[in-house]
Amino acid sequence: MPSPYRALFAAPGTKGFSAAGLLGRMPLSMMGIGVVTMISQVTGRYGLAGALSATIALSAAAVGPQISRLVDRHGQSRVLRPATLVALVAAAGLLCATSFGGPDWVLFVCAAGIGAVPSLGAMVRARWAALYRGTPQLHTAYSFESVVDEVCFIFGPIISIGLSTAWFPEAGPLLAACFLAVGVFWLTSQRATEPEPHPRDPQQRGSAMRSRGLQVLVATFVATGTIFGAVDVVTVAFADERGHKSAASVVLALYAAGSCLAGVVFGLLRFKGAPGRRWLLGICTTAVSMIPLLLVGNLPFLAVALFVAGLSIAPTMITTMSLIEEHVPRAQLTEGMTWVSTGLAVGVAVGSSVAGWVIDAAGARAGYGVPAVSGAVAVAVGFLGYRRLSRPVPGRGGTVEQHSERQERNVA
């Protein structure tokens, strides 16, 4: 591992909460696809499987920011364990109802309960911010966490699908629940690195979404999430049309691998100036990288195009986290990070649904028009909201010039 990454772990406790965060984040990529695999194997109803997966995603999008708001106010250990217990009980109910042929409404209630799973990525990033705020190490830490995210998305679906198909249908979601339990309870046992809670401040009422800068980031990432959701669905259909459906997992793994590689390299670089311009460049690059997908005619070229497209993902995510740290009051940092994840989750659900409709109507190749249009929307929102990203953060104080200087010191 390059020296800047080794230096991250010089602080006591960093290895422990990073490992716990890795385990606790695996369900993010395992649970949804595991439920789809399980339900389709047991019942043969793909429509039901997809609806349950979407219920989990939308429930997490609705509940996640509220859990993170409570974390900012009361601390990780006091909030994450009860929330995780709710998600684990719901997951157990879903597995049992599936095994014993329970009614559909029970499956949907349990799927909604799984949405109480906390955003472990936001929790770990909040710990890094508490350790390295205002130093170059924070940029490296956010880069490392983006790489961890991609590792989860590369290996999580493979593990979940593999277990459910080779062992028994419930194996994938069961292992995801085990990862969640171990990750959360291990993380919350590490009190020394837990960020200090911020009790309710009368001057900071309401949600972190009152930040105008965060509103821009979340809206843009709804469009970005639509790209991700559409690419996943269309790639599976594209491979299926060419008689190699199983190759879709390899192609999508290359998409994540491109992001992982870019995240590692990006973390080694040092930048001057406010991150807003780099963020806008990343959004534009992500959008442009969708255009070649409209032209591919076979799987090898699709694999290359997606690998190249993945190179812009992690740098954009890393820069987004830096912007959140600058544009959200410190007492609402965890909630702010979770809102971006919520935007992505909503976008993924929208992208999957719209892409499926386009594929049914016009074929897989036409489906790549969905991420292309979504990229254009992300760029439009980014340009329209860019000025908000250069304004002072509510509750932080200072002039615009002072705030920009603080950004330069934190990122440089």
From TrEMBL:
Pfam families (UniProt xref): MFS_1 (PF07690)
Domain spans labelled Major facilitator superfamily (MFS) profile: 213-412
GO CC field: plasma membrane
Compartment(s): Cell membrane
Family annotation (PROSITE patterns): MFS (PS50850)
Recorded coiled-coil stretches: none
Bilayer topology term: Multi-pass membrane protein
Bilayer-crossing regions: 20-40, 46-67, 79-100, 106-126, 214-238, 250-271, 278-295, 301-324, 336-359, 365-386
UniProt keywords, alphabetically: Membrane, Transmembrane, Transmembrane helix
Family matches, as InterPro entries: MFS (IPR011701), MFS_dom (IPR020846), MFS_trans_sf (IPR036259)
Protein name: MFS transporter
Source organism (scientific name): Streptomyces doudnae
